[in-house]
Amino acid sequence: MIKKFLYLNRKAPYGTVYALESLEVVLIGAAFDQDVSLAFIDDGVYQLTKAQNTDDIGMKNFSPTYRALGDYDVNKIFVDGGSLEERGLTVDDLLPLTYEDEDDDWAEKPSIRVVDSGELAALIDEQDVIFSF
Amino acid sequence: MATLHTVNKSPFERNALESCLRFTTPGSSVLLIEDGVVGALRNTRLAPRIAQAMENITFYALGPDIRARGLEESRIIDGIRIVDYAGFVDLTAEHDRVQAWL
């Protein structure tokens, strides 16, 4: 039975291990063919910024891995517009994540959807399982 | 399809409680645990926000965490229900899912 899984991310990367751990669990979970959504709110939106460069902090830059999510059929990535706005960010500051839609002749489509808090609240309420990070 | 939201951080340290309230739908429940019980106190900066949210959200606070911090139950906002660990278990069983605001 396919269940709806939501991974809810609220922490910036590198300062704590939450972001990396979440990404690892998403990739592991992708092997189980569930209905997966990712949400990024509060400082979680910083996980998706493009041009991350960790050369001088001695930590692996794991942001390129988000680009692989589309290949694992993880293509519902919800970003809270309010969290972007209060941090002076727009969707153009984020990684251009895409997936190939098998129901539309493998057309390349954006995975990121900027939504408001009401849409995210409704998304939370329709899940079978929530992984909180 | 009610969701139980847990908050374990003080609203004076993190925005977990405020974010929780922003993403909570009417009919949901919020359980304050660990340092999160600070959010259940009267006369704080957050109290008016809690009172407003209580119009359509049910609030609970974990008694052992309140008492551990020397906070008497009489200082908790009227209408917030105080539960013990067994009550915590009941809440998780009664709801369809749990979202932990860490």
Quick rundown:
The complex is a heterodimer of chains A (133) and B (102). Chain A has 133 residues and is of the alpha/beta class. Chain A has a single domain, classed as DsrEFH-like (Hypothetical Protein Ychn, Chain: A, 3-Layer(aba) Sandwich), CATH 3.40.1260.
Query: How do the strands of the widest beta sheet of chain A line up side by side?
Result: 6-3-2-1-7
Q: Let me know the largest β-sheet of chain A.
A: 5 strands, parallel
Residue-averaged pLDDT of chain A: 96
CATH superfamily of chain B: DsrEFH-like
Major sheet details of chain B: 5 strands, parallel
What does this structure look like?
- The complex is a heterodimer of chains A (133) and B (102).
- With 133 residues, chain A is α/β, with parallel strands linked by helices.
- Chain A is built from three helices and seven strands, in the order βαββαβββαβ.
- Chain A is globular and about 45 Å long.
- In chain A, 32% of the residues are buried.
- By secondary structure, chain B is of the alpha/beta class.
- Helices cover 29% and strands 22% of the residues of chain B.
- Chain B has a five-stranded parallel beta sheet.
- In chain B, helix 1 links the parallel strand 1 (3-7) and strand 2 (29-32).
- The mean pLDDT of chain B is 96.
- At the A-B interface, helix 3 and strand 7 of A face strand 5 of B.
